[in-house]
Amino acid sequence: MPKDSFDSDVIVIGAGPGGYVAAIRAAQLGATVTVVEKEYLGGTCLNWGCIPSKALIASTEAYQNVLHADKMGVKIDGKVSIDFDAIVKRKEKVVTTLRGGVGMLFKKNKINHVEGFAKFVDKNTISVEKDGKKTKLRAKNFILAMGSSVIYLPVPGLEGGQKEGVWTSDDAVNPPFVPKKMLILGGGAVGVEFSYVFNGLGADVTLVEMMPTVIPMMDEDLGKELGKQLKKQGVGVKVGASLDKCEKTKNGWKCHVTTGGKTEVIEVDVVLLGVGRKANTDGMALDKIGVKLHRRGVEIVDDSLKTHVGNIYAIGDVTGRIQLAHVASAEGVRVATNIVKGEAKQMDYKAVPNCVYTVPEVASVGLSESEAKSQGYEVVTGRFDFRGLGKAMATGHIDGFVKVVCEKKYGEVLGLHMVGAHVTDMIPEGVAAINLEATIESMIDMIHAHPTMAEAILEAFEDAHGMAIHK
């Protein structure tokens, strides 16, 4: 092959929610595209993250709904139990079906799928290795979408990688059993979601988070409310706490946890490490071709997501910035469009929704109250509890609230924060409001259908205006 000839216009390395979306968009725009993936189509999100964990959450919620059906006037005769093998099999079917769907989309869009591990030879050439066989591929442009993987935190007693009875999130979506007792380290999205699942399936769960509230990346009021709801469900929530060390026992682990200066020993069967990920860049020779790396991943020049090598871009977790599947997908669309159309448009991260799929759910977009104040805004907030809604009362979903954060002088919407049933499906209203620079007045002029949970958003904006009708 002549040196200036190419196999593809674009080679995408990684087939997660960033990579496969970027590949499809580039193909739709007329580019010839190859995707190199060392493992499964769909990446972490589809195979070990978003999708399997939500399948487990759905099964847990169904079980809990049956257990408490008497509250809705439904009497269950006989014993209610879980079929754990069936739960896991259902989860696997969901994953494999969606994985197959990605493959079908590749065929539909005439995308060349190559299995193997990619290593750069030069800025236009990679060597792909599979089962000891190496193949060279050349392209005009590359999109790095390798994602991230779990790491083992250096907790004293747990050093040295995988140990019996120590799980990561990868293990937790493929659990061999439901532990009798487990400790989950980290109160972010991963930690609280698995706390809900394993507590709901019958485990005695202790959740340890070093910050003052769980989900510390979100508005403080959301963390306080979710912590309260998890405690009501039976999770032992310990915030402002640290896991100092672990000692192996015959049947599990002795965990030394310090909260407020007081240390206690908690014995568990399983320790789940719910924090810590690293960018998948090892062994790819990126530095040798001029792609710069930083501590968290690939360094990009600006929000066009171009690296220091002009024909190579990076998206998603591998950049070490915002590690959310939908952000990776949006970045993939942007980069693919820039490459094929010869543009240099920047990503806009002003309105990135963040969701947590516990029961109740949590959703947030824009600035929290504390962030808005720290950025110099004079802030006005509004809040409405779901228990004030007809739909919430009728369906039994009265827990939680909606909180809005606005700039006081002009009423510009800065943030929308919710905890409650179905809030992850309601958050796009906040994304649209922030993107369109909506004001309190424009939001309260919107007619919301009745009865719906979304009426709480209207009431929260009316509360910020000082005129909530049902509060």
Number of helices: 14
How many structural units, i.e. domains? Answer: 3
Tell me what the CATH architecture of the largest domain is. Answer: 3-Layer(bba) Sandwich
User: What is the percent of helical residues?
Assistant: 25-40%
Please give a quick description of this structure:
The protein has 471 residues and is of the alpha/beta class. It has 14 helices and 24 strands.
Describe what this molecule looks like in 3D.
With 471 residues, the chain is α/β, with parallel strands linked by helices. It folds into 3 domains: 8-150 and 278-341, FAD/NAD(P)-binding domain; 166-275, FAD/NAD(P)-binding domain; 360-464, Enolase-like, domain 1. It is 31% helix and 27% strand. It contains 14 helices and 24 strands. It has helices at 19-28, 43-47, 50-67, 84-108, 169-172, 189-200, 220-233, 325-341, 369-374, 390-395, 423-426, 428-435, 440-444, 455-464; strands spanning 8-13, 33-37, 112-115, 117-122, 125-130, 133-144, 148-150, 166-168, 181-185, 204-209, 236-239, 241-248, 253-259, 262-268, 270-273, 277-279, 293-294, 297-298, 312-314, 354-356, 361-366, 379-385, 401-407, 413-420. Strands 1, 2, 3, 4, 5, 6 and 19 form a 7-stranded mixed sheet that branches. It has a 5-stranded parallel sheet with strand order 8-15-9-10-11. Strands 20-21-24-23-22 form a 5-stranded antiparallel sheet. Helix 1 links the parallel strand 1 (8-13) and strand 2 (33-37). Helix 1 (19-28) runs parallel beside helix 8. The protein is globular, with a radius of gyration of 24 Å. It starts with 7 loop residues before the first strand and ends in a 7-residue tail after the last helix. The model has no long low-confidence stretch (mean pLDDT 95).
